[in-house]
Amino acid sequence: MKKKQVINLIKYFTEKNESGFRTEAYEIAKSFDKNGDYQLAEYIMALLSDANTFVPQMNEEDIESLRKVSLLNLESLPLPEPISKDVIGIVNAVRRNIGVNKFLFEGAPGTGKTETTKQITRLLERELYIVDFETIVDSKLGQTSKNIASLFKEINSFSKPNRVVILFDEIDAIALNRLDTNDLREMGRATSAILKGIDSLNDEVVLIATTNLFDVFDKALIRRFDAVINFNNYSQDDLLDISIVLMSDILKDFKQSGKNSKLLRKIISLMKPIPYPGELKNILKSAVAFSSLTDKYDYLRRIFTNAYKSIDEVSIEELKELGFTVREIEILKGISKSQVSRELKGC
C-alpha cells in the first residue's frame, strides 16, 4: 500500500465521498491480493460489503431463488477416465460425511458439467436444486449481495440438508474477480457475499458450481471449494468413443435409421477438432432428425457434410484416399458397390 492511497482514503472519508473511498479501498485490496496477502485482501472486501448503507429492505418470502430439477429420464453420460475418476471421488467424499462438500466444475461449454452434476445427485440419491440467477441479480445498489445472503439462508434452512445438492450453474454470472478494475463495486460486493455464504454453508449440503471462465474467476472463491474438476480433459480418441455412445442412444428413438458405428467413427474423425459432447450430440441428433424417412443411412451423409464437406462434392477416389471401404463409399454416395468398384478401377 502506497502513502498516496492512505492520503486518498482520509481525503475521501473527510469529504464524505463514498464512491472515491470505495474505489481506493478496492485498489488497496487488489494490491494486497497481488502481493499474496489474500486474507487481508478478503478482510477489506468483507468490510466494504458490510459497509453499504444504501440497501433497500427486501422481503425474503417474495424471492424464489431455488428451482428443483427433475432427474427422471437421465441419458447416459460418457466421460473420459480422468473425469470419471473425479466423479467417483466426489461421490465417495460426500458419502464419508467429513465436510468435503463444495466442488467447482470448470471447462468449456458442452463438456458435461451440468449433466455430471445431475448424475452425481442421482448416485447420492439426493434432490437437485439449481440457483435461479434472475432472482438474484438486481440493478439496485447492494441488492444483489443481500439476495445472495438470503439465498444461503434458504439453503441452510432445508429440513434435510443431507438430501440436497445445490447447483450454481455458470456461477461466474455473479462471481467474477472482485479485484478486476472493470468491475469494482457491485460485483465485488456480490462475490464477497458468496464467500461469506460458502463459509457458513451447512456441511451436509452438497454445493456444486460450474464456470466457463475459470481464468478470470476470483481466486479467493476458488480456495473455498474442496476440489476443482477440469472438464477439458477430453482427448480426440475420447470424443470418438463418446460419439458412438451418443449415437447409440439417439438411434433408440429412430428405429428406421441404420446403425454403422465403424463408418460413423471414420466420419467423426474428419472433424478438426472434434467438438465437445454437448455440441457433438446436437450435430448427431439433428442429422438423424432431418434425415430421410426412407433412407436409413441418410443421417451419415449429413454428418459427413458437417464434418468435411458436402458428400456430393467428394469424389469416390477422394473417399478411398480418406480410408473409406467400398461398402462405406456405397453407403455415403448412395450407389451400388459394383458401380463404386468400376469407378475406382477406372481411376
CATH architecture of the largest domain: 3-Layer(aba) Sandwich
Q: What is the overall silhouette? A: elongated
The biggest beta sheet reads: 6 strands, mixed
- Strand fraction equals 5-15%
What's the total count of β strands? 6
List the strand order in the largest sheet: 1-3-4-5-2-6
Could you outline the blueprint of secondary structure elements for this entry?
Elements: H1 3-14, H2 18-34, H3 38-50, E1 66-69, H4 81-96, E2 102-106, H5 113-123, E3 127-131, H6 143-156, E4 164-168, H7 186-199, E5 206-211, H8 219-222, E6 227-230, H9 236-251, H10 261-268, H11 277-289, H12 298-307, H13 316-321, H14 326-333, H15 337-345
Parallel strand pairs: 2-5, 2-6, 3-4, 4-5
Antiparallel strand pairs: 1-3
How would you describe the overall organization of this protein?
- The chain is α/β, with parallel strands linked by helices and 347 residues long.
- It folds into 3 domains: 3-50, no CATH class; 60-230, P-loop containing nucleotide triphosphate hydrolases (Rossmann fold, 3-Layer(aba) Sandwich); 236-313.
- The chain has helices at 3-14, 18-34, 38-50, 81-96, 113-123, 143-156, 186-199, 219-222, 236-251, 261-268, 277-289, 298-307, 316-321, 326-333, 337-345; strands at residues 66-69, 102-106, 127-131, 164-168, 206-211, 227-230.
- Helix 2 (18-34) packs antiparallel against helix 3 (38-50), helix 9 packs parallel to helix 11 (277-289) and helix 14 (326-333) crosses helix 15.
- The radius of gyration is 27 Å and the shape is elongated.
